[in-house]
Design goal:
Order of helices and strands: HHEHEHE
Radius of gyration: 14 Å
Number of strands: 3
Oligomer: single chain
Number of domains: 1
Number of helices: 4
Length: 106
């Protein structure tokens, strides 16, 4: 994977999809596209190979923005319109942490 940053600490054990699955009940409507995005994230994160502690999910408000609750990593459920600013703060405060921002679609 060419997009993987080699300076970020790698996991010493092989992580699986189950390592990124949260114990929280997903409260999205059936048929919502966010289910497919969540499944893709849970499938791709182990392949990237970073430690779980090196991921941080950041979101704003709305149904789709409950994303940080549904991924077993660090996460921040911020306020409306501030996800980009919060993700920037995470990146500045912890440069090795690849902050991923989930755009509010509601």
């Amino acid at each position: 994977m060419d997009f993987v940053n080699t300076t970020i600490e790698r996991s010493s054990v092989q992580l699986t999809k189950a390592d990124f699955e949260s114990d929280q009940m997903v409260k999205w409507c059936p048929g919502c596209g966010a289910h497919a995005i969540l499944a893709a994230v849970e499938r791709v994160f182990p392949k990237i190979g970073y430690r779980k502690e090196n991921f941080c999910m950041v979101s704003g408000i709305g149904c789709s923005s409950r994303f940080p609750y549904y991924v077993n990593t660090y996460g921040i459920h911020g306020i409306h319109g501030r996800a980009a600013a919060i993700a920037s703060g995470v990146k500045i405060g912890s440069p090795p942490c690849p902050a991923m921002r989930k755009r509010c679609s509601t």
